[in-house]
User: Fold Tryptophan--tRNA ligase from Rhizosphaericola mali.
Amino acid sequence: MNKEIVVSGIRPTGVLHLGNYFGAMKNYVKMQDEYDCYFFVADWHSLTTHPDTKALKGSIKRVLAENIACGLDPEKVALYVQSDVPEIAELYLYLNMLAYKGELEKVPTFKDKVRLSPDNVNAGLLTYPVLMASDILIHRAKYVPVGKDQEQHLEMARNFAERFNHRYTELFPAPYAFNFKTALSKILSLDGNGKMSKSENAMGTLYLNDSDDAIIKKIKKAKTDAGPETPNSEKPEYIENLFTLMNLVSSKEVVDKFENDFNTCNIRYGDLKGQLAEDMVKFIAPIREKAAVIENDEVYLSKITKLGADKARARASETLQMVRKAMHMFN
Ligand code: TRP
Assistant:
């Protein structure tokens, strides 16, 4: 039986952190057996903010290496770089004719970017959702495993798909956000200020390439307090977060012990942090080391990106043929 198609894009910016791992990557890894997965590095999207393109190649390699180190299997999924699949650009051109300036200007992520960098409101930024729709529709995908912040973009992808279907031929299924059966772990920053971040708040964020020392230092500095005064108190958010992290990397016995200490007002946060740091190092170090090896293995990386591009292009060119036919173009 044909498996259902899943697409997701990863931006090649910054180093991945624990929030990315438990929020997205772990689920990608779980999906690879059950679905026909197309995962790619969105390098064209990153151009919208005018990065230093000389550094882009390095970021792409880093992201690929990290994803593989976390368990994505390039033999099972199509793991590719967006710019290796020119079919996406052609579909983007067609979809741009179905996208209206007014609706694009209303997108919250666009408005944010305009506010943050008023000097770089380029057309690529405005049509970011059209390119994203092309990434998805080029594979006629049904599911897109993304976070809440991408809902609006997905809704636009559905609108473009519907408009195309209506104007030409019923061709694209409506793509929906993939909902995981288990709730995603929400991981906060260690200092209690917001979420872990790729670009801000480095001391509060555990990166997948942090050294053992950095991991230990960051966890030691994590925000705590004098401890609860009454048994079975509710945990403040920053303490809850330390327990969330512990649940992800420590054994059940360890978690139970500290839960019990907390509930009986005997908790020693120094001990909790020591244990958490030890278990976190055991979790992150192998990923870091594996990613470093892959990142420097040019031969392997070019082999797997070629394999990924071939798989993606096979599907993409099939779609594009259907699109051209529906539009009565070139045949
Ligand atoms: N916009 C997504 C993000 O910011 C990245 C992305 C680009 C994407 N194209 C996609 C995600 C297609 C899912 C499907 O994270």
